[in-house]
Amino acid sequence: xxxxxxxxxxxxxxxxxxxxxxxxxxxxxxxxxxxxxxxxxxxxxxxxxxxxxxxxxxxxxxxxxxxxxxxxxxxxxxxxxxxxxxxxxxxxxxxxxxxxxxxxxxxxxxxxxxxxxxxxxxxxxxxxxxxxxxxxxxxxxxxxxxxxxxxxxxxxxxxxxxxxxxxxxxxxxxxxxxxxxx
Length: 182
Hints:
The protein is α+β, with helices and mostly antiparallel strands.
């Protein structure tokens, strides 16, 4: 009803119901035709509008680039670290195909209440050694889990391939649950 509103998350049925409540009863078909006539199309929002540039934005990337170049010529490892999407544990649908004798049946919905738990994949990639390392956790995506994951990588692989390091360069994602202050 307000001109400045150019979108709605109402369903077609809800729009028809609201119009009926306002004294203009219409069917869902008419709502569809009206939306189409006025150029309304169901769309997803796009993350395209920048918040602006911070005066020191490029400085951080130059610093990362400087450190990478410095570490590439050293005996120290360069690691990329990230946590991936949490996955529900249980009889849930997963994309992909496999060879089987009969059809596999999974739950028709991925409700967390039907899960036996949650698994969190945490990955480390050694850029110099072209080696990936994944830890699977069942607790929470925390700073402690990230540190434990790095420690396990170092015990199982890192110290054998980098016998005399003086430091590690760890490149981390700074978004989502990976806050820069952590």
